[in-house]
């Protein structure tokens, strides 16, 4: 199977992405490691997660999926071989939601700690925050890119109109 370029980025990924929303929810850490081993042993390299995964499970706080992926990469010492995509913007608790510059910068630091890495390959807006101006959100992403903490940005669950506004603002 051939790698493909992801959009206009320098990220080279295989056409199958592993969605990590099951980690810490329906799948425990040990089983998660086995699945990730099988995924990468099969030659794949692109893993998607989000800060909020799997907050919905009783007793969870969010970040469980990122924690498991981070522990696995640390254990395997394979960070340079993996493309990590994670997302920001979902509610993580009181005062922990949205796309303000202040919140994105803190959420990125939290994701980096959980993922046990110093950079995120693809950092995405998970859900829109219409109360925060697009300019403010883009300033946060720009700062993270300039600091080397994020390589590329993207969006998930965003209207076409808001994407156009983001592109025009950038």
Q: Helix and strand layout, with pairings?
A:
Blueprint: E1 4-5, E2 12-13, E3 17-19, H1 29-41, E4 46-48, H2 64-76, E5 83-88, H3 101-115, E6 120-125, H4 134-146, E7 150-155, H5 160-169
Parallel strand pairs: 3-4, 4-5, 5-6, 6-7
Antiparallel strand pairs: 1-2
Give a nutshell description of this structure.
The protein has about 170 residues and is an alpha/beta fold. It has helices spanning about 30-40, 65-75, 100-115, 135-145, 160-170; strands at about 5, 10-15, 15-20, 45-50, 85-90, 120-125, 150-155.
3D architecture notes:
The chain has 170 residues and is of the alpha/beta class. It has one domain: NADP-dependent oxidoreductase domain (TIM Barrel), CATH 3.20.20.100. Helix content is 38%, strand content 16%. The strands form 2 sheets. Strands 3-4-5-6-7 form a 5-stranded parallel β-sheet. Strands 1-2 form a two-stranded antiparallel ribbon. β6, α4 and β7 form a beta-alpha-beta unit. α2 packs across α3 and α3 packs parallel to α4. It is globular. The termini are far apart. The mean pLDDT is 94.
Could you give the distance between the termini? Answer: 35 Å
Q: Spans with pLDDT under 50 lasting ≥5 residues?
A: none
| Tally of domains | 1
Q: Encode the helix/strand succession as letters.
A: EEEHEHEHEHEH
| CATH architecture annotation name | Alpha-Beta Barrel
CATH-derived topology: TIM Barrel
Characterize the biggest β-sheet.
5 strands, parallel
Q: Strand order, biggest sheet?
A: 3-4-5-6-7
Helix and strand composition category: alpha/beta
Helix content: 25-40%
Average pLDDT score: 94
**Portion in beta strands:** 15-25%
CATH superfamily: NADP-dependent oxidoreductase domain
Per DSSP E runs of 2 or more residues, the count of β-strands stands at: 7
**Discrete helix count:** 5
Q: How large is the radius of gyration? A: 16 Å
Shape: globular
Can you tell me the CATH class?
Answer: Alpha Beta
